[in-house]
Amino acid sequence: MTGITSRAAGGAGHRVLLSRENLRAYTAVLLGIIVVVVAYRLLLGPASARGYLGGPPPPGPPPRDGTCTYGRFDSWPLWGQLVLPGVRELMVAVPIAVIAAVCLGHLNRREGAHLSVWQAAVVGTLSIIATSLVHGWDAGIVQPIAGPLELFTDLPRVVSIVDFISNYEELQPTLTVHAQTQPPGAVLLVYVLYRLVGSPGAVAIAICVLAAIGSAFFIRGILVRLLGVDEETAAYAVLLYLLLPAVQVYYLANVYAVVATLVSGVVYFYLYEDRRVAFLGSSVCLFLLTFITFLSVFAVLLLFTFEGLRALAGADNNSLLARMASVLRPMGFPLLVTASVGGVYLLLFVTTGFNYVDAFLYASSLENPGGFMLVASPVEYVVTRVQDVMDILVFLGPAMCVLTYRGLVTMRGEAVTGGQFPTEYSLVKAALLSLALLFLAGTPKKGETARICMFVLPFLLVPVLTYIMRTDMSRRESRLLLAIVFAQAVVFQLFGMWVW
Fold first, then answer.
1. Cβ proximity of 383 and 446 under 8 Å
2. CA within 13 Å, CB half, 304
3. Of the ranges 253-257, 260-264, 416-420, 493-497, which one carries the lowest mean pLDDT score?
4. How distant, in Å, are the alpha carbons of 90, 249, 281, 282, 346 from that of 336?
5. Who has greater pLDDT, 239 or 101?
């Protein structure tokens, strides 16, 4: 791929992002989202106010100080509070928007000007912190990590790291709701950061910095070294990723930001040409991922699905047995990586008594007390599966949804005709199929996937970049896409207090 932002601002007459066809598609997506939300309210009625059928609403964010009024909307797609911003919030949000507009305008006027990857990472990190400050230091930074029922409140349970791991099965039922459904690594991550930085607000910012910089490093590596894009395109992709509304809202104070980073890390190392580096790096990232969240099964599914799709894409014959053999042949490496992580947990069981399987089964019983949701509550299963998909689309926004779809169509066409994106297409398909398998299995149990499933967003960047490059989108329009995405994020922060 050639650079996105190096193209001249000329060619303004050839509109891509704002073409009539795309504008109609954006409108259709927006109307479709509105129709689904309205239908959800009308069909479910009072049940929709409980957030999901058959249970109480999820805990909302703590009340915030200030003069603005707000109302609770503890149901999809507004997990939290819909707020009416006051003067204080506007005094923070407006300068942020103005500064962003000035910076983008400056880059547009400078011929060939572009950010480096690390400049993009720093800008993206600062923007996450800045938009979170719209609600003030306490409500925007401290409370998301130290509010009621958040992981920070479980830290007194940690006498020592070894003790916490050893006694986790006894401690798990006594933890807060978020910690109970995670492995011990979620609480220990916050614990270690708190010991290093010393205050809840600093912990929230530390999570943001670690996740944003780590994501930038891994996304850049996947795109540049492994998928063939240049540094300029990678920098654009990193900035676009960090400006996405879900990242802006949930990358501060949220362990799922670290989860998203580690998923990218697993893929980054797994695709290394040096198999020793690939094995060691992907195994370490996968272990850390499994230690923080049980949703780490996504990464395991991704590796096996990716190898299967890539093998099928390269199969030269139509014999069923031969194709099955070609699919099974490359499964040894992901099996080795997964087995190595299992070996670490076996060692932990022998040395500390920590039983990962028991911890998972307890968390599963809390998430699905009646058993598999499709059997226990078919209506809830169908409703929440729709929520899971729509939640991601709502936070992506109409423009990114359309560009992702158009990019996938382009990639599929090129892959079918022997184009140059077989690996990328297999990777994106594997990510989407693995996510679909999670949804079909009843995970997550309700539509909070904009927060929980941020790990899928880096894979959605690939079709977006493909579409931008294949349509020769001008520099001006590519910068405009950044502005649109960031504007959505500011609106989300300004008008919402989101459940963490």
1. no
2. 14
3. 416-420
4. 53, 36, 13, 11, 15
5. 239
- State how far the Cα of 60 lies from the Cα of 65, in Å rounded to an integer: 15
Residues 247 and 260: their CA atoms lie apart, in Å, by 10
pTM above 0.85, yes or no: yes
- Statement: residue 250 has pLDDT above 90: yes
Phi, psi angle pair for 405, to nearest 5°: -65, -45
CA distance 30 to 122: 31
Output 320 or 489, whichever has higher pLDDT: 489
List the beta bridge partners of residue 71. Answer: 82
Structure tokens at 209: 């910095």
DSSP three-state, residue 342: helix
Strand partners, 78: 75
pLDDT score of 79: 67
CA 123 to the chain's CA centroid = 19
For residue 71, the SS3 value is: strand
Q: In what order do the strands lie in the sheet with 78-83?
A: 70-75, 78-83, 496-498
CB 208 within 8 A of CB 140: no
Give me the DSSP letters along 167-190: THHHHGGGS-HHHHTS-THHHHHH
CA-based nearest residue to 150, from 200, 79, 206: 200
Q: What's the burial of 45, exposed, middle or buried (CB within 10 Å: 0-12/13-18/19+)?
A: exposed
Which phi and psi (to 5°) does residue 342 adopt? -60, -35
Q: Using the predicted structure, report yes or no on whether residue 403 has a pLDDT greater than 50.
A: yes
Tokens encoding 230: 């240049």
Spatial distance between the Cα atoms of 265 and 221, rounded to a whole number of angstroms: 9
Q: Which of 13-17, 263-267, 333-337 has the lowest mean pLDDT?
A: 13-17
CA distance 410 to 417: 11
CA angle 261-500-267, nearest 5°?
15
Average model confidence (pLDDT) across the chain: 86
Considering only residues 53 and 452, tell me which one the structure prediction assigns the higher pLDDT: 452
- Is 301:434 a contact under the CB 8 Å cutoff? yes
Q: What is the chain's Cα-based Rg?
A: 23
Say whether pLDDT at 6 is over 80: no
Backbone angles phi, psi at 198, to 5 degrees: 90, 0
What single string gives the DSSP state of each residue in 367-380? H-TTSSHHHH-HHH
Q: What is the DSSP letter of 106?
A: H
